[in-house]
Amino acid sequence: MQKTVRFLDTTLRDGEQTPGVSFHLNEKVEFAKALEALGVDMIEAGFAGSSQGDFQAVTAISAAVKTGVCSLARCVESDIRASWDALKNAVKPRIHVFIATSPVHRAAKLNMSKEQVLEAAVSGVRLARSLCADVQFSCEDATRTELDFLYQVYRAVVAEGATTLNIPDTVGYSSVKEYGELIADIRRNVVGDREDIILSAHCHNDLGLATATTLEAIRNGARQVECTVNGLGERAGNAPLEEILMNLRTRKDIYGLEDNLQPKGIYRISRLAAGISGIEVQPNKPVIGANAFAHQSGVHQHGVLRDRSTYEIMNPEELGIPQGGLMLGKLSGRHALREHATELGIHLTEHELNRAFEKFKELADRKKDITERDVMAILREQMHGSLGQYRMHSFQIFSGNRMTSTATVSLNNGGDIVTRADCGDGPVEACFHAVDQITGMPCSLESYQLRAVTEGEDALGEVTVRVRHDSTVMLGKGVSTDIIEASCLAYLNAVNRLLEHQAEHAAKA
Ligand code: KIV
Ligand code: ZN
User: Fold this and answer.
1) CA 433, 439, 441, 446 torsion: positive or negative?
2) Is residue 269 pLDDT above 90, yes or no?
3) Could you say which of 110, 113, 272, 370 has the lowest number of CB atoms within 10 Å?
């Protein structure tokens, strides 16, 4: 059996199904490039038949990377053809065809008999295979499907030319042992001695077992794992890439397998995923959480100082986790910032670099030590937001307890400075209301998150907002040592993106 585990990353497809998350086209391309640099074998770039946005994303990513790119498709002709149209320029294209097979999905969702499901799977794979040499097939909700029916469907699609058989634990229902046995059973009863058929694990985390079930699948012969960065995904998410990778690496004595990834890129891609999704990583998240290498107890600290391996089983430097050193100084130039961004895998346009540099200089004036995390936050903010129609010029607030807060905000709209004042329940809301007055586009705030980028009183505050206008929800990010300013910038970033989105839609209509 093959000695290498292949990674299919589905952050841009299953990960984007995280409630409230929607990635921009440029963010998707940037993320795909970072996945390529990380060494993933296959990028699930979207579900081309599901929307114009997904079609564009699969098309753009196919042209931007050399690694494998796949598009999800139902067993429906239009989906499969859309996937192929979008993948045409990919160096290594793959169509990923799926249909639900479990009794509950057949009855409640598809209203199809077993025979109809089987027929759809066969004709879907046949069509996909007539277009593309590499076809993957998934039985959605495989772990709640009758075993004999599962064999029947997988055997039939292998006969049509599917070479990767994905076995989704769609609702994270399987126990670790059951999932391992299922993979072993499919290997015995469907794959046999065919070395060209790869079994693939796709595990959701509803009961917190996604990493464990994925690893058990590997132990039982799966040689592709499907995962997302930071475990993003529908409900409790998908199996996290970083956890699977570091289990394979740290316990090579058990798994004894190779992979094509570069663990050094883990921290960067994790921050990128958090930045573009707006979903911050929980501090105690294995491998990449802020506390994953923090030692609180004196005994532990003492031990780590003497020998890291007393309490650390992985080396944070090998994961690219910055050790808090000073990266760039007050005198660093634009060139150094660009080099640094490129090293971090962030490709900024000239505009974005200029803005990032302005921000960097402002920060250098306000803050003593600039760390990698500061620089990363600034770069991420620029990557997240294009210049947009409105730019912050200045703001003033009048606020205190037992009073209504008021804010006067001035925005630069194509060279014109427009000023409005408004009040609110606190200075942040007052600023948002004043911005609404200027843009004439009132938005409701769906969520607001503030976090300190680094320790210390002069830390940068990073604000992430999710705002709604009509039915469109948009994420915005702002960074500043002043948290009211960071809030205004985040709100403005979301509003600018909403305006761009509206303009794109108007242009298409
Ligand atoms: O969870 C699932 O079943 C899926 C399939 C569509 C592959 O994401
Ligand atoms: Zn899934």
Assistant:
1) negative
2) yes
3) 113
Quote the CA–CA distance of 318 and 259 in Å, as a whole number.
15
Ligand 2 centroid distance, CA of 441 (Å): 36
Of 170, 168, 164, 100, nearest in space to 137 by CA: 164
Residue closest to 68 by CA, chosen among 3, 122, 1, 6: 6
pTM, full prediction:
0.81
Rounded Cα–Cα distance for residues 448 and 204 (Å): 27
In this model, does residue 295 exceed pLDDT 80? Answer: no
Pocket test residue of 167, 202, 205 for ligand 1, highest count of atoms within 8 A of CB: 202
Identify which ligand lies nearest to the alpha carbon of 18. 2
Protein residue closest via CA to atom 8 of ligand 1: 14
Comparing 128-132, 166-170, 175-179, 355-359, the range with the smallest average pLDDT is 355-359
Q: Hey, which residues does 278 pair with through a beta bridge?
A: none
Close Cβ partners of 342 (under 8 Å, ≥ 6 residues apart): none
- Measured from the Cα of 98, ligand 1's closest atom is 6
463 in helix, strand or coil?
Answer: strand
Q: Which H, E and C letters describe 62-100, residue by residue?
A: HHHCCCEEEEEEECCHHHHHHHHHHHCCCCEEEEEEEEE
Query: Where does residue 168 rank: exposed (0-12), middle (13-18), buried (19+ CB within 10 A)?
Result: buried
Per-residue pLDDT, averaged over 463-475, amounts to 87
Q: Which residues surround ligand 2, an ion (CB under 5 A)?
A: 14
Burial of 500 (0-12, 13-18, 19+ CB in 10 A): middle
Of the candidates 497, 505, 496, 491, the one whose C-alpha atom is nearest the C-alpha of residue 389 is 496
Per DSSP bridges, beta strands 224-227 and 461-469 are unpaired
Instruction: State which of 95, 98, 200 you would mutate to test the pocket of ligand 1, scoring each by most atoms of that ligand within 8 A of its C-beta.
Output: 98
Query: DSSP assignment of 344-383, as one string?
Result: TT----HHHHHHHHHHHHHHHHH-S--BHHHHHHHHHHHH
**Residues with a CB atom less than 6 Å from ligand 1:** 14, 98, 138, 140, 166, 168, 170, 202, 204
Q: What amino acid occupies position 491?
A: Y
Q: Which of 476, 479, 480 is nearest to 496 (CA)?
A: 476
Residue among 278, 273, 275, 310 nearest 295 (CA): 310
Neighbours of 81 (CB within 10 A): 17
Report in angstroms the alpha-carbon separations of 103 from 173, 189, 204. Answer: 15, 21, 19
What DSSP assignment string belongs to 198-228? EEEEEEB-TTS-HHHHHHHHHHTT--EEEEB
Residue nearest to atom 5 of ligand 1 (CA): 140
Amino acid, res. 333: G
